Amino acid sequence: MKRVKNVLNKIKAPVLWVIALLFCLLPPLFLASPAGYFPILVFLFLTLISGLYLAALRRSLEWEEGGKAAICRRGDRQSFGLALHNKGPLVFPSVKVTLRLSDLFGGTDSTLDTEMALVPFERRQLDMDVRFTHIGTYTVSVQKLKIGDLMGLFQRDGEGGAEHEVQVLPHVWKLVRFPMSHQVNNENPMSRQSSERDGMDYTGVREYEQGDPIKTIHWKLSAHTSDYMAKQMVTIGMTGLAVILDLYSSREDSEVRMDLYDGLVEGACALCGYALRQHLDHEIFYFDRDGMAKSCTFRKEAEIDRMATDLPKITFDKEQYPVEQLLHRSSVDLYGKNNVALVTSEVTTEIIELLIRIHLRGRYPSLMLVLPKGLSELEEAEAVAPLRSLDAYRIPWFAYTDPEQLEGGELA
Question: Which terminus of the chain is more solvent-facing, meaning fewer CB atoms within 10 Å of its CB: N or C?
């Protein structure tokens, strides 16, 4: 619909010009005198004058952008300044400025049009407010600057200006309650959980299981048995919270992916903010823009903003964001956090199995699922159906579409 509207706007002036020309051709058809040609000659003369007038305007306009790099919160408005100066004695009947806002993936998220007239030697300052609805790094620039003639028939396009970067930070919504265990697994042999962490002493051996690192295989003992045997390590869970952020999505629509990105990042930030307010030991795991697995902790909320600027875009390439590696690391890490919370928009069988495995090892996993906006009740039920298997193990899970739902939420 928007594309059709743009096409209609482009052909509107030529169509009206043709209609006016046909109307001017009527007098010669009904008048036998040369005076019948006077209207069409005047019309064509005015068209020529209008075109020449536009050509004279080209060198009379200067414009300067006042924007610069900025930082704001998602949903906030940022002012973008533009100064227009008519240096000549002619009137600008129409000056149309098109401001372009990029999306998370470099495409065009939205445009803002402003149209005005300029009197001779006028200098006008424009302050256009742009609302940023998604998290990430975006650019704002003048995409087009169009000058119209007297009749509105001809236009001249000016070149776009420099791009100004805007860093949009997430909101840290305040969770009231979240299901966590404050139990600490100590060094009592009865409370030790099996781990495959490399380089640690082991308490025994067991049969090799899929997912165990190759380095944990006990090669000498395996040589005397028909099966591979793995070293049984020890791990001691520490009270606290490990947040796993999954930025993979199979959705291809850019707007849906940006909505999911907002929900994922702000969900993880809400958990970290909750841990800060509760004075809990916490850690967040993610892959940075270079594809490197990273973890960090925070001493104050401002540090969460710095972490958000290090996050990559949401990706639909699973190999670029293998969140299962982060989950596996949390389940076997020596002195790892006792509570493991996964924030994701995609639930696979492997993820379900990993959460159950974490639970069986004596730790306390949970899951926060971000759903696309606009799902029907049936589609939403299908999306959360795989999570029902977690109920049998009493693993808590939560689904939401808008991260604002987390504000004041009691997820326990």
Answer: N
